[in-house]
């Protein structure tokens, strides 16, 4: 269902008022995890000011260690709604449980399916049935084809609002958190009609890698970027090491605008 031949012009995904896949490169940004009203609102206002067209923020955080911050759950969702009201930006948030889909669907603009749940088929089907946009993150041990197969589970429910996300895979290379696989970006763009988003934050795992990985992702054909930003990364409860500070996000957006203008 996702094959490029089926829709050669490509699919546009409508996230609230934002379109992903219309030929321009858009940025969705925000904290890895929603933590406090002040943190979420300040970060949302900041990313809106510098040109992001969508917000990200996890309220259900599937962490490797059960001792790590697990997210605020439905309470955090209210903060995302508040941030949307303040900025006018739509948001995506991760869903981890098929039982949560209906309740979340009443308020979210789009779902995110995390790397650890890419092959949770019951979750894929439930999210597909919601009809809402979905950012489907590649499992860090999954192939290009397996990711496409996971996408088919969404498409089979009659939902074509699917954005494939490359967020890095696990390799023998320890100098970055994961290895960003730009081959996947090029292949997905060639083989499917779905838009592709790249997460340079979770892949590189370090702020100084976000800009080069973002520029490389765009060169490989990415339609969008998913970027971790925090007003005070040193206080972040989740993935503190990779979040961009306000001035780093501003710099990134300036650089991306320059690249789009051919500078
Ligand atoms: C995230 O984007 O919040 C996240 C947890 O990413 P991933 O599922 O790619 O690890």
Describe the structure.
GO terms for molecular function: 3-deoxy-7-phosphoheptulonate synthase activity; aldehyde-lyase activity. Its EC number is 2.5.1.54. Keywords: Transferase. It comes from Amycolatopsis mongoliensis. The protein has 263 residues and is of the alpha/beta class. It has a single domain, classed as Aldolase class I (TIM Barrel), CATH 3.20.20. The chain has 9 helices and 10 strands. Strands 3-4-5-6-7-8-9-10 form an 8-stranded parallel β-barrel, surrounded by 6 helices. A two-stranded antiparallel ribbon has the order 1-2. The radius of gyration is 17 Å and the shape is globular. The model has no long low-confidence stretch (mean pLDDT 97). The chain binds phosphoenolpyruvate (PEP).
Summarize the structure.
With 263 residues, the chain is α/β, with parallel strands linked by helices. It contains nine helices and ten strands. The longest helix is centred in the C-terminal third of the chain and has 15 residues, at 246-260.
Topology of this protein?
Elements lengths: L12 E3 L2 E3 L5 E5 L6 H13 L4 E3 L17 H14 L3 E4 L6 H5 L4 E4 L7 H10 L3 E4 L6 H12 L6 E5 L15 H10 L4 E3 L1 H5 L2 H14 L3 E5 L17 H15 L3
Helix pairs in contact: 1-2, 4-5, 8-9
This protein binds phosphoenolpyruvate.
Ligands (ions, cofactors included): phosphoenolpyruvate
Q: Quick one: biggest sheet?
A: 8 strands, parallel, barrel
Order of helices and strands: EEEHEHEHEHEHEHEHHEH
Strand order of the largest sheet: 3-4-5-6-7-8-9-10
Integer tally of domains: 1
């Amino acid at each position: 269902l996702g094959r490029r031949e089926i829709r050669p012009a490509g699919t546009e995904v409508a996230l609230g008022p934002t379109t992903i896949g219309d030929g321009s490169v858009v940025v969705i940004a925000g904290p890895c995890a929603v933590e406090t009203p002040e943190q979420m609102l300040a970060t949302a206002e900041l990313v809106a000011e510098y040109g992001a067209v969508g917000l990200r923020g996890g309220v259900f955080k599937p962490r490797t260690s059960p001792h790590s911050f697990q997210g605020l759950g439905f309470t955090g969702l209210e903060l995302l709604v508040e941030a949307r009201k303040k900025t006018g930006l739509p948001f995506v948030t991760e869903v981890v449980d098929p039982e949560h889909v209906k309740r979340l669907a009443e308020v979210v603009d789009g779902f995110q399916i995390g790397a650890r749940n890419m092959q949770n088929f019951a979750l894929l089907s439930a999210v597909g049935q919601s009809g809402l946009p979905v950012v489907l993150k590649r499992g860090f041990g999954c192939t290009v084809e397996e990711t496409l197969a996971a996408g088919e589970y969404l498409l089979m429910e009659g939902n074509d609002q699917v954005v494939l996300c490359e967020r890095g895979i696990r390799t023998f290379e320890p100098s970055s958190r994961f290895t960003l696989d730009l081959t996947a970006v090029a292949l997905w763009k060639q083989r499917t009609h779905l838009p592709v988003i790249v997460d340079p934050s979770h892949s590189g795992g370090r702020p100084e890698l976000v800009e080069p990985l973002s520029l490389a992702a765009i060169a490989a054909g990415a339609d969008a970027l998913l970027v971790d930003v925090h007003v005070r990364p040193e206080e972040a409860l989740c993935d503190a090491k990779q979040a961009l500070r306000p001035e780093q996000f501003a710099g990134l957006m300036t650089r991306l605008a320059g690249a789009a203008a051919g500078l």
